[in-house]
């Protein structure tokens, strides 16, 4: 199917047409022409006042396969991703069984064939995510794993993390750290502070995150390794990573979109839809995260898409599972943070791919079309009808959001 996008503003720092208003003609999956005015026999898409950028890429999401398909499967998960403008996703290995051998990597890659969304399964650092022995990292790498993480379980053993960093060096793979010291976090459910005291709930101190970041930065410096921190959430975490970058360490990090707009004040109603991990922090933390994105300390914005069946969220706050669905709300939340749209393209589309070491699409003639068309001013209601996920565990269901994905295109497939 041929497609002609008319009069859209192109946002792609790698393109000669960056920040220009132009028509884009896509023929058989290839951008055949970009010009001020194109006439062609194709489906017309009005792009006036709207933006085209490379398709977004998510470094942190959960789809459910393997073993948790009642929460989300490959079909529903990638449809939700496409609806949110994502043409590539890195899958966390938080599955049953975990993605800890080449068999799981190959299964997921096979399931994702011929999809609009490019899928990159991440392998575990430890066997069964138990934090005891290294998983088959090299075998998984040969089968297609680009990076390694124990997902939403921190690697508590410093020696194991050191060995993982050294081992991954041998084949230039990336290690993702989920920074939480479980001995300090304990079984608390919310951020430690004024709000936890008001709610009468035991809190997770910021120290639990910051101590693990400090430890892994030391390990990365000692082993001369690169490391990526997933979903940082505190002001001090930003400072630690900023300082490490100044020292020349190969460190990158990301932040979840919901941590840019929500604070622990959202928990006043004990609504389990706001129960996430890391927990929602304070206004000062949110301000520091936004500043970190602006000055380049934080490299990427992720969805941390975590679907759950209703029975895991529609319960008392204390026993509810962590996580919200995030694919379709990532752009509106990122825009709500007040960040300029050009910067958001870097954080949502360009930097995530560079971190993972995958090809960054370019909006240029003779390039394969991998792009998203979005309107930063369009208002829409996120509801059960337009929700593409199997799950509805989002606090934004029923809310009016500003910033809408109009079209996602990749692999000669279109979602709109």
UniProtKB/TrEMBL annotation:
Q: Where are the transmembrane segments?
A: none
**Keywords noted in UniProt:** Hydrolase, Pyrimidine biosynthesis
* Pfam families attached to this UniProt entry: DHOase
CDD domains for this protein: DHOase_IIa
According to the entry, every stretch annotated as the Dihydroorotase catalytic domain falls at 49-235
Give the E.C. number(s).
Answer: 3.5.2.3
Signal peptide (from-to):
none
Q: Which InterPro entries match?
A: DHOase, DHOase/Allantoinase_Hydrolase, DHOase_cat, Metal-dep_hydrolase_composite, Metal_Hydrolase
The Swiss-Prot or TrEMBL record annotates one GO molecular function as: dihydroorotase activity
Which EC class, in a word? hydrolase
Q: Which PANTHER family match?
A: ALLANTOINASE
What is the protein's name according to its record? Dihydroorotase
Q: Which organism is it from?
A: Mucilaginibacter pocheonensis
